[in-house]
Amino acid sequence: MLKLTYHGHSCFELEAEGHRVIVDPFINGNMHAKIKPSDVKVEAVLVSHGHGDHVGDAVEIAKSNDCEVVTNFEIANWMQGQGAKAHGMHIGGAHTFPWGRVKLTPALHGSSLPDGTYGGNPAGLLIWMGGKCVYFAGDTGIHSDMALYGRLNPIDLALLPIGDNFTMGIDDAVEAAVLCQTREAMPIHYGTFPVIESDPREFLRRLTARGVKGRVVGFGETVTV
Ligand code: NI
Ligand code: MN
Prior knowledge:
Blueprint: E1 3-6, E2 12-16, E3 19-23, E4 44-46, H1 52-55, H2 58-65, E5 68-72, H3 73-81, E6 85-89, E7 94-97, E8 100-106, E9 123-129, E10 132-136, H4 145-152, E11 157-161, H5 170-179, E12 184-188, H6 200-209, E13 213-214, E14 222-224
Parallel strand pairs: 3-4, 4-5, 5-6, 10-11, 11-12, 12-13
Antiparallel strand pairs: 1-2, 1-14, 2-3, 7-8, 8-9, 9-10
Helix pairs in contact: 5-6
Manganese (II) ion binds next to helix 1.
């Protein structure tokens, strides 16, 4: 069984079989997060790309948990420079950890780190835990590779950005859910800043019209995948 807790924006925790990880731990500065970085107890911190609203509190959480940041090679090097442990990967590569398996997928976006350091290519993440596959698209525009990754890796739940402006909006996120053939889709990366206001219920309605199951997870809510 896989449990997902959503902290708003692109930050979520996954828990299965006694293992727990956090993804894109943007907590300080995230108006929807109901926790503090010091509350987070995890075995790994996964980071999709270098932007501040995704790297977030990764360094602090990795240090306080004495665990690795799992991310692309460039961001892994930067994390080590900040004194955090890191495991570098890159797009197309997968690795099995004690807590689960991750594959980095393409994302169409930028990835500079908060201090301006080059952060490599942005990624999406396929994460296998508890016998389920979660596809976190990351910050991205729609791209047809989503169909290929979905075909090669049957997806139980796709986390898709709907906030527009920096990423897909609702139209393209609905199309992305169809493309990746996910069993279920969940909206993320909306409502955190005025420029990414978007209606998750509208996303749900549009998904349903296309025959895809959708689920809006509330801020701080835990659901079973
Ligand atoms: Ni970004
Ligand atoms: Mn972002």
